[in-house]
Amino acid sequence: MLLFIPASLKPGQMVDGWRVVKALGSGSFGAVYLVEKEGQRFALKMAMHRASSGDAEQSDARLMREMVCLAQVSGHPNIVRTYAHGRWNDATRGWLYVVEDYVEGYTLGEWMEKTHPTAHEVVTLFVKLASALAHVHARGVFHRDLKLSNILVRASDGEPFLLDFGVGSYAQAPELTDSPLPPGTRRYRSPEATKFLREHGEESEARYAFKATDDVYALGICLYDLLTIARPWSESPAMFLGGRLELPAPHSLNPRVPAALGAAVLHFVARDPEKRAPTAEVMKRELAALLPEVGVAWREPFHVPKAHVQLAPEAPPPAPSQDEPARAARRGLSNTRGAFVVALAVLLGGLVLWRVTTPSESLPTAQRTPLTPSSAQQVDPEPKQPPPPPAPATMPPEVASPVSAPEQKESPPVKRAPSTMSPPPAPAIRKPKPLAVSPGWPPAQWGGFLKTCAGLTAAAALQMGCPGAQVRPEAADCPEAARKAMFTNKADGGMGMRKNAYVAFYADARQQDPGEAGVFREGPVTGEVYTDERPQLPKGTLLYGYLWTGNKDLLVGRYTEARLPNGQKVPVCIELGNVDDFGWRTWDGSKPGEVVARTNLSGIAVERWR
């Protein structure tokens, strides 16, 4: 007879009336399954050991503790609920199981990488999480293990959920560990808890008194990591948080983070608990106060996905002759040995150079292995920008830009629309901040063309019309995905726009002085619709595109993706100008690469770039 373990349940097997659909995961404490009953789906967690098994990790007791915690904090919409519990397959000596909500979605870190949310979307989500944490504390419960992987975001509607209360605590909870600190994750441990461990780690009876500010700190670090690490789930943080130094402001590490949000986060992760938000309710109120904030910085992703440019494939090697395989094998073996020797020499040389040039007392800049509490803990004095997220999947040529992730831009046209206003005398020109980078520019289908451009001289690139040297981009059909999205009737899932529909917007969302002069430079740009005249693209819609300024007399632009105020992304083809004219005439003071024009312009929805 095979020994049963909780991780061995098979699809179709029944556990007290709950039918196993599939395994969701397992660890040292227990196993989790997707189960079904009466047409509804739930998550079933089963302790890895029985109460009488002598389990040193006390997985049975931990699951019982989670069940008690969840029972006490029930009633909040952002905390998973329990529906049943029992012992299987013996009522007194079987394996303990708990049936909870099944949340189909992503961990908080995965959600960040997959959706590239805006600052406003992240604040909205953390208002709900802080509300849930305040609810937990109001009922005398501490979570004690808040981290990115213990928060799920439901894929269907973006609702967040606190889960995994296995190391939670409540009044009169039995002690399950003999260490000074409760089980948890080092990165999210508060500075005062780290200090306690450093000072009392050798005392067998010492126990840290966990407080609400410890949970506030942990949730604050979750938010801090989302703002400063582009891929918080896939890549380890470059900075170890040891509690001895104040953390750098999030907006100093990532300039796309609004300063007001960065300042709020610093209040949640202050090293001194007296200077930290004292409760989760205060945290919730401070975040909620940011929700009315407006401006492009709050409605753009604060991590820009790296543009994916497909390089042209290399020429295929010539077909080998009949007797080539044997010679190739010998050459391959020889080359492999040679390459290994060369690589080894380079590696040894690099290590010697590093040892000579690196001071012995300094730590590596990117600390990958966690430090023990007694070892040196420091923050990188010059924090690096977080690494970019993975390149988005290449879209087929007919798609203007991905709808769910980074935006891809289509190559734009140029025709001019004469300004009906006479240029103002000697306008006071305010140069804007650096251009907002559009996440998906250039389009993947330009890969081969850009590779060719990179290898040309400036003169040759100018003749070919490479980006950066173009005066007017070539005419081309608008991608089918954008045409369908714009011109298909609403009843059939489209926006119901008419062809050549007029759209009024600021060409650059950072320059919003109607009728006044703005400065426009070559490159990716984010525009913003400023009127509700076009209901399909209401006021506040962001338009991602590209500007051409090689001709000092003409401002040319194409916009290939719209982000509606509700967060929905739609591929579009909107070009500066009107039906009769292409592009916009510039004003005095323009020069190639940097032109002056009115800030509030307009364009038309086209089915073909002119």
UniProtKB/TrEMBL annotation:
EC number(s) recorded for this UniProt protein: 2.7.11.1
SUPFAM superfamilies in UniProt: Protein kinase-like (PK-like)
Classification via CDD domains: STKc_PknB_like
Gene3D superfamilies (alphabetical): Phosphorylase Kinase, domain 1 (3.30.200.20), Transferase(Phosphotransferase) domain 1 (1.10.510.10)
InterPro entries (alphabetical): Kinase-like_dom_sf, NEK_Ser/Thr_kinase, Prot_kinase_dom, Protein_kinase_ATP_BS, Ser/Thr_kinase_AS
Biased composition (Polar residues): 360-378
Superkingdom of source: Bacteria
Protein kinase domain segment(s): 18-291
EC class (word): transferase
One annotated GO molecular function: protein serine/threonine kinase activity
Residues covered by region (Disordered): 311-330, 360-431
UniProt-annotated binding residues for ATP: 45
Bias-annotated ranges (Pro residues): 384-395
Swiss-Prot/TrEMBL keywords: ATP-binding, Kinase, Nucleotide-binding, Serine/threonine-protein kinase, Transferase
Reactions performed catalytically: L-seryl-[protein] + ATP = O-phospho-L-seryl-[protein] + ADP + H(+); L-threonyl-[protein] + ATP = O-phospho-L-threonyl-[protein] + ADP + H(+)
Similarity comment: Belongs to the protein kinase superfamily. NEK Ser/Thr protein kinase family. NIMA subfamily.
UniProt name for this protein: non-specific serine/threonine protein kinase
Organism this protein belongs to: Corallococcus aberystwythensis
